[in-house]
Amino acid sequence: MLDIKYIREHADEIKQNNKNRGVDVNVDRLLDLDTLRRDHIKQIDELRAQRNQSSKGKPSKEEIDKMRKVGDEVQKLESDLAKIDIEYHELFARIPNLTHPDSPVGGEEDFKVLETHGEKPKFDFEPKDHEQLMLDLGVIDFERGAKVAASKFYFAKADLVRLNWALVTYGAEMAARHGFVLMETPDMAKNEILSGIGFNPRGEEKQVYNIADSDLSLIGTAEITVGGFHSGEVLDLSDGPKKYAAISHCFRTEAGAYGRTSKGLYRVHQFTKLELFVFCKPEESERYHQEILEIEKEIVNGLGLPYQVIDIPTGDLGGPAYRKYDIEAWMIMKDGPASPTGEYGEITSASNCTDYQARRLNIKYRKNDGATEYVHTLNGTAIVTSRFPIAIFENFQTADGSILVPEVLRKYLGKERISK
RNA sequence: GGAGACGUGCCGGAGUGGUUGAACGGGCCGGUUUCGAAAACCGGUAAAGGUUAACGCCUUUCAGAGGUUCGAAUCCUCUCGUCUCCGCCA
Q1: In 3D, which of A325, A289, A287, A332 has the Cα closest to residue A309?
Q2: Cα separation of A81 and A141, whole Å?
Q3: Percent of chain A at pLDDT exceeding 70
Q4: Residues forming beta bridges with residue A311, ordered by sequence position
């Protein structure tokens, strides 16, 4: 959510920004509704003031009659206002965040490569993709995942489980070293928290599973629960920002995603993720955005994966992000392009959401002068237990079909090679 | 899951239909006093929205939503949460 005052005063900028982001919202209609809305509020306030004036003492019969009429009028205006509010909020919620001036303008394929690290592997044998490798090693079972739950669910087994745990532990220790407080969160959240973070819990574009007979949904990322953690609070940031590394299961319907890269583990309905989240002062958010990216790079560097860092273009930022960096690891992905380059697949994503989420979730901090102001929120992936293993299996496979475990994981995994 | 109690400001805690944004106490901030401090005394201490050039004025908010009423923190309904007891369980 943006500041309606800002939209009023910068309508043209907002329209251009929406266009860059590929979002079609009728800004003029929103501003009309805003005017109408304020007009109604003004009238209601005036009538209420009248009524309050008369209710100070015990009113006479005539006064009661008069006040009854005022009351009716207020009620009518309020019901009109309620209707206006619905459309107003519906439009307002669809306006995306402002955009960093350096974000490349364009669609999904117009990303900018900022950095490239590591050497792509050279195999002196025919390399396999992760699905084949995992099936051969007996560490994954998609068929039974489909039997028990649905297609695109899976059972991880044996050393894949150990690898997942090792990755999470490795990532968590790295995050903790950087001052992030470790957290396990609920795997469900109220729909109002989902929308506050920018997920749409209902409607055609929804990406989440709803829980029947309740106001809850399964979370698509711990970003939702950690963001909600401080909702409605005024934070004390005098000792620095609030930094959390939160682990949760993540559930995604991936509706409409078929046909995109869907081989193996790349796009599944459930995975586990360690998410970094920061609540900070507005002037610090660009700095912590860099810090999150640096930690992600440290994690991926430690694993020895070849990767590139990309600056996400305006058309692919989603609603809440002001700027977003993804790390894409080199992958085989024989089945189709993981990213538009055809060679790299997203394994992490770091977003600066400025005050967009904080406004909706009402998260502020107290400034030195005692006033309050919305915080900035940032989030980034530390570890994901689906795409990290993809990259590890595909990059570190050997001629006999076994997988060389990255050095940093060996102490957690207890072995240096995953083999039959 | 069953039975009961409760949910008021930064905190404790009054308040059962009409100057109650809310007594009283604590905390915090400012001042007086003091060489300084403590104590004492005095004053201040919410947020959101509307309006205004500004001072200010107005509206809303006593868990949340809805209802009754000319008028609700106070009455009614539902939801959420907390506590106690029972059951169940990791």
Answers
A1: A325
A2: 55
A3: 94
A4: A112, A325
**All protein residues with a CB under 7 A from any atom of strand B:** A 4, 38, 41-42, 44-46, 48-49, 51-59, 64, 67-68, 70-71, 364, 371-372
pTM, 2 dp: 0.93
Structure tokens at A264: 């193996």
Indicate the residue type of A106.
G
Answer whether A178's CB lies under 8 Å from A382's CB: no
Distances (CA, A) of A175 to A26, A166, A178, A180, A286: 42, 14, 5, 5, 19
Report helix angle A27-54 to A61-94, nearest 10: 160
Q: Mapping DSSP to helix (H, G, I), strand (E, B) and coil, where does residue A218 land?
A: strand
The conformation of residue A407, written as its DSSP 8-state character, comes to: H
Residue-wise pLDDT for A56-90, tens only, equals 556 677 778 888 888 888 888 888 888 888 899 98
Q: Can you read off the two tokens belonging to residue A180?
A: 């992030």
pLDDT digits (tens, 9 = 90+) for A160-184: 999 999 999 999 999 999 999 999 9
Classify the complex by whether its ipTM is higher than 0.95, answering yes or no: no
Residues counted in chain A: 420
| Residue A252 annotated as catalytic | yes
